[in-house]
Amino acid sequence: MLFIVREYFKNYPARKKVAEILVNNGIAIRDSKLFLGDIEISVNAIARAAGVNRKIVYHTIEYIEKTYELKNIFERLHPSLNLDSVAPVMGWEVLEISFKKGKFGCSLEKIAKILSDKTCEIRQIIGERELLEKNRLIIIVENPLKMETISEIRNIDSVESIMIHTAEKDKEKIICNYCKVKYCPRKVSMKDLK
After folding, report:
1. Tens digit of pLDDT for each residue in 138-163?
2. The domain containing residue 8 runs over which residues?
3. pTM higher than 0.85 for the full model?
4. Fewer Cβ within 10 Å of end Cβ, the chain: N or C?
5. 46: exposed, middle or buried (C-beta count within 10 Å: 0-12, 13-18, 19+)?
6. What pLDDT, in 10s, does the model give residues 161-188?
7. Overall number of domains in the chain
8. Are residues 103 and 174 in the same domain?
9. CATH of the domain at 118
10. d(CA 185, CA 50)
11. Are residues 30 and 67 located together in one domain of the fold?
């Protein structure tokens, strides 16, 4: 999608920065207003984030609303929850996989099969397939992966690299050890094991 945005805004570098911020954060434009989900966002906040003045943001909104193709995209944007930065403090592990160009789709099934065979509890999967930049897949799993599982994924032809973000080593930093949540699936599953 950023490829489309860059093409439409190639002659307007300041507006392009604004449009990229909107896309990357899932901020929609409806009736000349900016929305993050159902929450209205101020033009000032976007201007500060893009490092431009408010006038540029207004011009960007106007240009998007006048261009049917862009309007059709920007009025449908929604933010999405991404757990990869929270995962380590929850005691989960993050597997970040980069793929060789043009090899993203054919690898998803193989990776899912490997994780399924190893009975890995998956919390979230986020895939990013860019036309110009590298494609990557982020998989958040509940428990640390065994080296044999990582090795199997690494041996898939299209996988270029794997980065693993492990859970906090200091157990005092893991949220479940000191949070006030009454019901926590992690705590329940730990009781079942005893």
Report:
1. 999 988 888 889 889 999 988 888 88
2. 2-74
3. no
4. C
5. buried
6. 888 888 766 555 555 554 555 445 444 4
7. 2
8. yes
9. 3.30.70.260
10. 40
11. yes
- Report H helices in 9-101: 13-25, 43-50, 54-66, 68-74, 87-90
Listing DSSP states for 134-190 in one string gives -EEEEEEESSPPPHHHHHHHHTSTTEEEEEEEPPPSSGGGSGGGT---S--HHHHHH
What is the C-alpha separation between 90 and 3, in angstroms, rounded? 35
Decide if 82 is inside a domain.
no
Residues of the chain with pLDDT under 70: 102-105, 130-134, 168-194
At position 49, the amino acid (one-letter code) is: A
Note whether 88 and 168 are within 8 A (CB). yes
Examine residue 110 and state whether it is found in any structural domain, yes or no. Answer: yes
Distance between CA atoms of residues 182 and 189, nearest Å: 14
In a domain, 16, yes or no: yes
Q: Which amino acid makes up residue 135?
A: N
- 59 and 150 fall within a common domain: no
- Count the neighbouring beta carbons within 10 Å of the beta carbon of residue 91: 19
In angstroms, the Cα distances linking 155 to 42, 71, 100, 110, 114 are 48, 43, 13, 11, 11
- pLDDT of the residue at 190: 40
